[in-house]
Amino acid sequence: MYRLKYRLYRSPENMKKFLLKNNDGSNFDLYNYQGSSYLVLIFFRGAWCGHCKKQLQEINNHFEEFEKLNIKLLAISSDTSFKSSLLKTFLRLKFPVLSDANLEMIEHFNLKTVHNNQIVSRPAILIFSSEHKKIIEHVSENYDERVDTTALINEIKQFKTAKTVFASTSPN
Length: 172
Description:
With 172 residues, the chain is an alpha+beta fold. It has helices at 30-34, 50-61, 63-68, 81-91, 104-108, 149-169; strands spanning 4-8, 19-21, 27-29, 38-43, 71-77, 97-99, 112-115, 118-121, 124-128, 134-140. It contains 6 helices and 10 strands. The protein starts with a strand and ends with a helix.
């Protein structure tokens, strides 16, 4: 049974300013990375997860399409920076893969779960608008459920179109 939680936020929360560790050990400022783009955060269980690697590869295959839509991508897990770096290199990912080993973001977005006595993130995709507001959330209830990448792109296109139409019809 496919049980993927989906939520569209009518009163979106603002993106908190998070500092994560980049693969070279430097600080990665998520807020500045997003800039004025849309942002897709891909939370995954870890480099050991086959379903996660498949999803990351699928998203990577559509990287240019995300880029044309002014959407930045970022993958996050509780893996160490070293494991994140290895995964990024091994899969030849074109977007950052960061470590949230202290679970700051994973806990903030209520994605913490346990696998083999290890705390990991539930698979999830969070989408933030160009105003740094969380607008869409997909959280997998099961480890093997993922959002289809093409459906995700179409969903963002629809949201951006609806936002543009709403803005152009709103009184000044």
